Amino acid sequence: MSNTPHTLGEEFPGQMDKIHALKVSDPRFAQLLADYDAVNDEIHVAETNLQPVSQDHETGLRKRRLVIKDQIAEALSLMA
Question: pTM of the predicted model, to two decimals?
Fold first, then answer.
């Protein structure tokens, strides 16, 4: 597995201005970003074996990150 961080800038290139605008204006969106960063950090720690976890747990984290990423993408698509 890759241990490259999946930063929001990499996941949503060219949309950081929109992300920042939503973050400051929408507390729910700000929480999504915090959740994404927290899960992403957990995955990175697991991938680098700093805190080994089971494959099932790592897979669950990856699925959770994907769900959050989809929610972020949806919010961005609704922004005018």
Answer: 0.89
